[in-house]
User: What shape does this take?
Amino acid sequence: MLRAENLAVRRAGRTVLAGIDLELRGGEVLGVLGPNGAGKSTLLGALCGDLPAASGQVWLDQQPLTAWPGQQRAQRLAVLLQSSSLDFAFSVEAVVGMGRLPHATGLSIDAQIVEQALQAADAQHLSGRNYLALSGGERQRVHLARVLAQLWPGGAGQTLLLDEPTSMLDPLHQHSTLQALRDFAGRGAAVLVIVHDLNLAARYCDRLLLLVNGRPQVLGSPDEVLQPDNLKLVFGLDVLVQRHPERDHPLIVIR
Amino acid sequence: MNPRVTARALLFGLSGLLLLALWLSLALGPVSLPLLDSVRALLRLLGVPLAAPEQAVLIIGQIRLPRSLLGLTVGAVLALTGVAMQGLFRNPLADPGLIGVSSGAALGAALAIVGGTLLGGLPAVVAPYLLSGSAFAGGLLVTALVYRLGRRNGQTSVATMLLAGIALTALAGAAIGLLTYLADDATLRTLTFWNLGSLNGASYARLWPLLLVTVVVALWLPRRARALNALLLGESEARHLGFAVERLKAELIFCTALGVGAAVAAAGMIGFVGLLVPHLVRLLVGPDHRLLLPASALAGGALLLFADLLARLLLAPAELPLGIVTALLGAPVFLYLLLRGRA
Assistant: This one.
């Protein structure tokens, strides 16, 4: 599991992230919320080692993240960044198959996993297509399948970090993506996902972290975090918090 | 169709093409040899006891074999390093010259050519070696500088390297211009011809160092094929797939500096091969480096041999500089690809 201890990041002499104490738990989806520029992507970058920590430490299992050999780290930790710069005409399966590069499971097992991961990302119908011919949302789902394939089937000890995996998706696929992450976490892995849609977060996340100015504001269950005064303070939004009539999670209505 | 079967068929096809190019390149020239004689002569040179005309054995052994092997090697190494650079820059339009190695080598050569004349002419025995050595060293030095400029806090910024490469290329161009200005007419001619590239001065002495470098590059890059595939996703993505990205970048740059430096040192500036061959081959086999690298090496070798055949035959008995032929062939094909891609 991934754990951050008093993590801080400085950029160009400015502290852009500080005071992060966070433990991701197996089987749990943790949502990160916050206004633009709050440091959500910085947090993700620091957690996965893309950004050096100015202070504090990130632990993967019992070892500092930086001490892991690349391949073994990649078998435990997968990261989906906001957008990929891939500009080469790979087939969809080849892109998803890159998730299997850290493994030596062999062609036939890899092909099965690629198919299952595509199915989980609701992208199996894209199989055989040229990646460059896909729309932005379709590409996003292919990359989701790639990181799922990297940890497939997912279990205790594995961590998946995702930066706005729903940013280009239609409403149906926003839900199917979050549901896929739920199912993935259900098999024992820890999932951290940056989302913007409060109701999506309320429905699918076990815990939520609200970030403001690079500092954690609240960390807790959706019921604890999605309070009108919290949302007013963080987003400047006047909201009503009601209950979902069928599922009983908080439902945020903008006033 | 099974993609692995197609891949194998493709590599076989390209090998066949390369052998055909080699055969024609041995047989054709100012003195045209019967096709069979050229094969017999080659086999006899390889130690097979066969009857072959003495003249054919002499021409092939002394002139055409070193030239053809040099062309094959130059084409293969330029294509391989082209693949490496397009992978490094994650851009199918990248060229090995981007990191300054070609312009550095050109500057090194110009220094040797003009400097040699200013010092009152070098002994004919050392002049070619000095020229090649100086070109090779120039390429390595400028590339090292570009790499150094792109590094900050233990990380290499590919974008900074690209810009540093452009700046240093301009600087090297200015220095070459200055040397050109200082040169007398005869030196100027040497300089110009060298810049146009040619296999004319081919000899075994020129071939061996390049062949050694090419073998190293051709063995090393395919070991990084999977890492190169991952790199196309992005540097962070490749790191998250477990690859040591900084090390990979350093290796790619080193291989390119070595390969292009040696190629330019042996045959002068030959443009478009490193850009065009990987591009064309990618259209055939797709972007997977496990196939792209060997296929590009074969295609690069074949293309350069055919281009050299044209250079030798078009105006025979005179000879066109090879760089002119590759540019004449390359530029229109490149434009065609560009416009087709936009449609």
About this structure: Chain A has nine helices and twelve strands. The longest strand of chain A covers residues 2-11. Chain A has a mean pLDDT of 94.
